[in-house]
Write a structure and sequence with these properties.
Radius of gyration: 21 Å
Number of strands: 2
Distance between the termini: 19 Å
Structural class: mainly alpha
Order of helices and strands: HHHHHHHHHHHHEEHH
Length: about 375
Amino acid sequence: AGRLAALDLFRGATVAAMLFVNNPGSWAFVLPPFGHAEWHGCTPTDLVFPFFLFIVGTASVLSFGKRAAQGAARTELARHALRRGATIVLVGWALAAFPFTLHRLLHLRIPGVLPRIGLVYALGALLLLAAPARRRAAFLVAASALLLALHTVLLFLPGYDLTLEGNLQTAIDLAVLKGHLWKPAWDPEGILSTLTAVATMLTGALTGLLLTSKTPLKTRLVALGLAGTAGVAGGLAWQALGLPLNKGLWTGSYVLFSSGAACLSLLAALVVVDLFGVKRPFAPLFTFGTNPLLAFVLSGLLAKLLGLVKVTVADGKLASLHKLLFDRVFSRIGEPYLASHLQALAVLAVCWAVLRYCEKRGWYWKV
């Protein structure tokens, strides 16, 4: 259907990883690679969200290119991007507000994963559409560099530091969104880090421009590998100079490192799927990759329902279905960490079954 199969695979693996790390049987039993760094640092789990924003950027180039070839004007594409971004934000807020109690509505978490994706998509798309046709790559490189530089300068303003309590992002969020954050005094998707999150999307857009260029395929693949290596090395070098990898602050070093890793991951998918044609073993990941919004919302609703539905246990106390599943089913395995992650796999399997049912019928949730 004219889709880039490697991108669907990369997206599917990213979505599946997101669902897996978000649904352990017990947060007390999560192996380090499947949890976020406490503050500074970067685990494999910390790469999931930037990978998705990177993919959004790459997919935007492919989508806009296809629509432009069909005659769509830039203003029409911009309206579509704004409408789509706003819809994703609203879906995120609806998921956060579920089951729509008055308390949840009054204390709605305004930042979040889907709201960030929607906002970043809209802003990044407008920058992509504003870029001059003949100098689009240079424009995006300059925009990304300016966003990273501005964010870094703001982080080091006098009176602020890079600690959880003393950084500028926390100060801004408490001044503007107090009472509507993930935690009372902190949100990992804060206002200030939107700058660098947009830069992450733009690195994906640059990758899309590379992949759709008219240079020989081998040259494009080599360039993608070099860009990925440079990004990882640049992120580590920037960290050594004093700007740590930090997902919560979405630091510039984190952008370079995660975008470099995304380039290398996409390169691997391109080689395996689009060059060698190996697709069958990855069929479940393609299922996740072609219906990502439904996958995320479905997993979120399932997790909430498992936590909200209570059952009276032997001692007369109430226990959630999520806890009962872990205590009475998966804990029988004996090894608590294995049990916790097997429960996450079970949630992943349930989501896949629903997505596969939709896929067989050609049902895709698009906004």
